[in-house]
Amino acid sequence: MVMPDQSAYAGSAAIRSAKGYQLIPSPWMNFLIALGLGMLVGLERERTKGQGSDRRPAGIRTFTLAALFGALAQFVGNTGFLAFAVGCVASFLAIAHWQRQTSDPGLTTEFGVLCVTILGGLAMSDPLLAAALGTSIAVIFAAKDLLHRFVKNVLTDQEVNSGLIFAVVTLIIWPQLPNRFIGPYNALNLHNIWLLVILFLAMSAMGHIAQRALGARNGLAITGLAAGFVSSTAFVGTMGTQSKSAPNNLGSAVAGAVFSTVATFIQMGIVLLGISPVLLSLMTPSLVAGACAAGLYGSIFLWQKHPAGRLANEAKADAFSIFAALLFATLIAFVAILAAALRGWLGDAGIIAATALAGLVDTHAATMTIASLVASDSLAGDKAVLPILAGLTTNGLAKILMAVGTGSFGFNIQLIPGLVLPLAAAWCVWLVYP
């Protein structure tokens, strides 16, 4: 017999008390975890295995023994012996499946037994990972009806197609893009720009899911407030697309877009708090005024009367618009080149213009730049408010351009005042209380 490899179950050393000694010595703890995960998964299978000739071939005893079989194979042999044990279990399962007289061709239980056997072996080297994966398998088994209803009755064909597009954009295209600055003035990082495309699509999908789960009014407003901390401009484009695909939800789309602007002001305050509290004290009146103005305007559309019932085309709408996402990326690339060129031409004298242009892409990045200058005493605090307000204003302009490029006429008419009024409030407070 091959002597047990002590390093195979060394992972259980992580399970220790505060004094440094093991509560249960190895390999007993490893075997107990293998036993526990087998019983956990088998318990769920036992409850749903059925009766008679149509019952499933494995229950609590089979799963428990399979986990212990894998643990023993790893303990007395090695990984090769565990592979041999898994092959034996697979053969037994194949014979049992062939002999079953049932109309159900599913192999879920059989694959579950194989997984539990392997996890039993894994418990001898990494018991915590094995326990986590075993619990995940039990959850997957228990959520069968919920998952089936979601896939068959909730997801639409358009949503499945959108999911495939998102997978291509995220898993195929993004890793291939260079993560370095290239192009004119070395201003473009395609890897980072495409990440913003991914965020745009993800936020669009979040808004779509929230709308279906919570209803148009509450779902889009909550999603807008959360998405604004990622990119308010991107979410405005998302709501513009929403205004065309579901025109009866126009008020909710406007509310979501405006609430994303509230998040812009809040996040700017958080950024200033972390970098330059002095500048935050100077900016607080303007930030509070802008956030309150946006919140009040958005609330008008949030609580207005909405059409009764769910929209017939609500479930048929696409989860996101790839065209709007590419438009957003194109705008970012253009502004990045223009801002870099202006900074190169004007130097320090162009700080306001450069910050304003940077605000077209991301007002928080522009704010961090100015706040860092104030924190390092390279720029006086009272002279930093104007560049930040300029960046905030051009960011509002970028949202307007995004709305015009993606939204319906009615959406733009109702949204643009909600983008202009907060900026006007911020500027007025600064002018009155400089």
> How is the main sheet built?
2 strands, antiparallel
- The helix/strand order is HHHHHHHEEHHHHHHHHH
How many domains?
A: 2
| Strand elements, count | 2
Average of per-residue pLDDT values? 75
Structural topology:
Elements: H1 28-48, H2 60-76, H3 79-99, H4 108-122, H5 127-142, H6 144-154, H7 157-173, E1 181-182, E2 188-189, H8 190-214, H9 216-245, H10 250-275, H11 277-302, H12 322-346, H13 351-361, H14 363-375, H15 385-406, H16 409-432
Antiparallel strand pairs: 1-2
Question: Brief description of this entry?
Answer:
This protein has 434 residues and is mainly α. The protein contains 16 helices and two strands. Helix 9 packs across helix 15 and helix 12 (322-346) packs antiparallel against helix 13.
Structure in words:
With 434 residues, the protein is mostly helical. Helix content is 74%, strand content 1%. The chain contains 16 helices and two strands. It has helices spanning 28-48, 60-76, 79-99, 108-122, 127-142, 144-154, 157-173, 190-214, 216-245, 250-275, 277-302, 322-346, 351-361, 363-375, 385-406, 409-432; strands at 181-182, 188-189. β1 (181-182) and β2 (188-189) form a beta hairpin. α3 (79-99) runs antiparallel to α4, α4 packs antiparallel against α5 and α11 runs antiparallel to α16. It is elongated and about 80 Å long.
Keywords:
2 domains; single chain; mainly alpha; 434 residues
